[in-house]
Task: inverse folding
């Protein structure tokens, strides 16, 4: 049995954050006599005014009965829990039981937890000192030892999460509430975006987590991994999932999105902007200024080496980009980040990962048929499965996409609320030429090839040599002065070509269609101007045309 399916089967037996229907967006856990009529009340009002459905227990009566029914259901049914740690929070056994339930939901459902430190030190909560020590002196004599220890454990665990402290807002409650509101909206938006595309992500996520050792909070080494794959295979979605799942266990975190694109659009200025983002994100500041790339590198080396950070560098394709973040050669790639830091690089370029010496590379996998049908259906039908009358048409689209998430999303969204005749028409179009939005993403890898010879090698393989022995193809192309030994290796590193166990050159169908589309585009659709002919009817048409005497065409 496919291990991914086996894992998926076991995982689906319990609720997941992507399938569960949430009753509330936020659950507020707090000590009533400390903050109900003040800070927590104002926070609840601010959330409600912004359209966020937040649960606030305002029932002071019959609490013992309430906590075992509606209260636990409210915790279980909330996307985010906010814990307001105040001076007498730990005095209440009800609050501590709430906290146990919250941390259980975090583990079981992936619920986001945001601790707030309201006029208390995080270290007092984490180590049960100060007022928290006094509270536990009382609990020791009233409750079972195991229960008290469980309370201590969850306090330590919750206080270790990345949270917000009133002191950082200079004691200004309105400013503090605005900051919390912004964080909640960011979390909710990210969860909404990810939940749509989390189909099949669980087994892939687990594979990456094991590779990077991200859950080993006691680890002091700096680890760096790459997520490698062709365009549209889901590298960024996987990286975002890692970021959202684990960001709160690090002192600092930064997601640097679209690095290649930002670098290409602004060159050095784009890198300076990304350097500023990295520094400001991890140091939790908004005032760090960077005048040049070199100055940014110096600041990163000086300021980040004491911070345990999670850094995602998304869609990098050149060593210059990584060097701007103080990630240089194999020997020095990790020197400038604090102990326990984790760095994840998504790329289409295996050679780039080799240059910086990553600790491991995860090759992003396409979707199996079951996963592909579900992802496509979510975009085409807003459901986990297709409407019955569209089932056969959906399967034809799935076959065309060959497990590529990008294609499934693009075509699913395009076909949404279109009738069957329009679906048929689109499928006919796809037989003639690939969808432009899909090709645009795939072509980035082709356009980024470092040499024109490598581009010609790719076009030759896409037109003639798929499924043929690599060594045999190398001989043929070397005879055309293509230096194919290197050229084919470059194509493999750029995720444009793969080699099967039988040493056959293979290529994703959509990459093949993209390559042939480039030949068609360059000739403006006229077979007589094609640089390569691979269709029988085009070859016959050109050879039968007496007006064509000579032409530089490959067959």
Result:
């Amino acid at each position: 049995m496919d291990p991914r399916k086996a894992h998926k089967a076991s995982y689906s037996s319990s609720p997941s954050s992507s399938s569960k229907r949430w009753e509330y967006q936020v659950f507020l856990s707090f000590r009533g006599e400390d903050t109900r009529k003040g800070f927590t009340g104002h926070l609840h009002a601010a959330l409600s005014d912004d359209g966020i459905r937040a649960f606030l227990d305002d029932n002071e009566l019959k609490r013992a009965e309430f906590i075992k029914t509606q209260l636990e259901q409210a915790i279980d049914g909330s996307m985010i829990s906010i814990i307001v740690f105040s001076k007498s929070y730990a005095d209440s056994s009800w609050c501590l039981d709430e906290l146990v339930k919250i941390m259980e939901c975090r583990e079981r459902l992936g619920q986001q937890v945001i601790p707030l430190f309201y006029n208390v030190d995080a270290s007092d909560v984490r180590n049960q000192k100060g007022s928290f020590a006094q509270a536990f002196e009382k609990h020791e004599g009233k409750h079972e030892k195991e229960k008290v220890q469980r309370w201590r454990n969850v306090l330590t665990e919750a206080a270790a999460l990345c949270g917000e402290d009133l002191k950082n807002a200079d004691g200004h409650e309105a400013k503090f509430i605005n900051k919390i509101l912004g964080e909640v909206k960011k979390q909710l938006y990210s969860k909404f975006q990810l939940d749509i595309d989390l189909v099949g992500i669980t087994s892939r996520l687990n594979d990456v987590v094991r590779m990077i050792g991200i859950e080993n909070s006691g680890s002091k080494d700096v680890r760096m991994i790459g997520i490698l794959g062709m365009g549209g295979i889901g590298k960024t979605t996987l990286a975002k999932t890692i970021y959202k799942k684990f960001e709160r266990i690090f002192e600092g975190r930064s997601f640097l999105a679209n690095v290649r694109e930002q670098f290409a659009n602004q060159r050095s200025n784009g890198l300076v902007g990304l350097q500023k983002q990295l520094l400001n994100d991890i140091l939790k500041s908004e005032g760090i200024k960077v005048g040049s790339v070199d100055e940014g590198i110096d600041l990163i080396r000086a300021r980040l080496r004491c911070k345990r950070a999670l850094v995602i560098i998304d869609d990098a394709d050149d060593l210059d980009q990584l060097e701007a973040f103080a990630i240089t050669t194999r020997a020095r790639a990790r020197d400038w980040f604090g102990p326990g830091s984790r760095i994840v690089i998504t790329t289409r370029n295996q050679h780039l990962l080799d240059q910086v010496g990553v600790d491991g590379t995860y090759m992003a996998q396409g979707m199996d048929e079951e996963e592909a049908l579900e992802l496509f259906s979510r975009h085409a039908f807003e459901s986990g499965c297709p409407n019955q009358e569209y089932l056969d048409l959906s399967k034809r689209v799935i076959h065309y996409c060959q497990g590529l998430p990008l294609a499934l999303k693009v075509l699913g969204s395009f076909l949404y609320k279109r009738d069957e005749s329009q679906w048929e028409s689109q499928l006919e179009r796809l037989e003639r030429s690939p969808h432009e939005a899909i090709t645009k993403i795939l072509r980035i890898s082709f356009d980024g090839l470092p040499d024109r010879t490598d581009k010609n090698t790719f076009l030759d393989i896409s037109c003639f040599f798929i499924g043929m022995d690599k060594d045999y193809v190398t001989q043929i192309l070397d005879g055309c002065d293509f230096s194919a030994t290197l050229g084919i290796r470059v194509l493999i590193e750029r995720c444009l070509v793969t080699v099967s166990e039988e040493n056959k050159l293979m290529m994703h169908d959509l990459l093949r269609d993209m390559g042939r589309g480039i030949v068609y585009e360059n000739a403006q659709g006229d077979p007589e101007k094609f640089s390569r002919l691979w269709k029988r009817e085009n070859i016959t048409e050109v050879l039968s045309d007496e007006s064509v005497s000579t032409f530089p065409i490959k067959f």
